[in-house]
Amino acid sequence: xxxxxxxPRYLITVTGKKLTVTCSQxxxxxxxxxxxxxxxLGLRQIYYSMNVEVTDKGDVPEGxxxxxxxxxxxxxxxxxxxxxxxxxxxxxxxxxxxxxxxFFGQGTRLTVV
Amino acid sequence: AQRVTQPEKLLSVFKGAPVELKCNYSYSGSxxxxxxxxxxxxRLQLLLRHISRxxxxxxxxxxxxxxxxxxxxxxxxxxxxxxxxYCALKENYGxxxxxxxxxxxxxxx
Lengths: 113, 109
Description:
The structure holds 2 protein chains of 2 kinds. By secondary structure, chain A is mainly beta. Helices cover 0% and strands 50% of the residues of chain A. Chain A is built from no helices and 11 strands. In chain A, the strands form 2 sheets. In chain A, strands 2, 4, 5, 6, 9, 10 and 11 form a 7-stranded mixed sheet that branches. A 4-stranded antiparallel sheet of chain A has the order 1-3-8-7, with no helix packed on it. In chain A, a hairpin with an 8-residue loop joins β9 (87-94) and β10 (103-104). Chain A is globular. By secondary structure, chain B is mostly beta strands. Chain B is built from no helices and 11 strands. Chain B has strands spanning 4-5, 10-14, 19-21, 24-25, 32-38, 45-49, 60-61, 72-74, 83-90, 97-99, 103-108. The interface between A and B is medium-sized, with 24 and 26 residues.
């Protein structure tokens, strides 16, 4: 089944403790992206990647890192999480061609205390 | 600068009433426009795209390049349409997806 898989689905952590949220897709998509969703603010892009070893900042990249060492994986790294990074995170992927939609993961709810 | 705008954060209509969710964009090239829907506690999923000119669940959207708009319309809203709706633009050269801030549609009985 074609899908985008995020892990974990739920995570509670403490301020300053490094964490990684994984995202994997099995559709051979070139494009992958991370978003955070907050009440009243909608969906904001954190980072995106057009292909392996190609990443770019989105609208809210501060406090996050990403890597794209292989096509199927696009992990989101929080080196020193802070409470303002408490949010619902979505990963998405797509082909980099015309008329192709983005597919979303099921979301990761992160709480930083 | 925000490239996709959705002026209404919340839109409430009664069941059976027409609904229009507004979306405007700013982009110098030829964009691809999409509408995504997110039902409660679920992931975002594609509702429709302008290239296909399709009608999904009774919703339609027409790309108006002169007004740079891609409004989503449905003639008779149903309670199950209550959800968060996001308008999205795909840059045809950068191929990055840019989402609007979203509109929460609430269909009242």
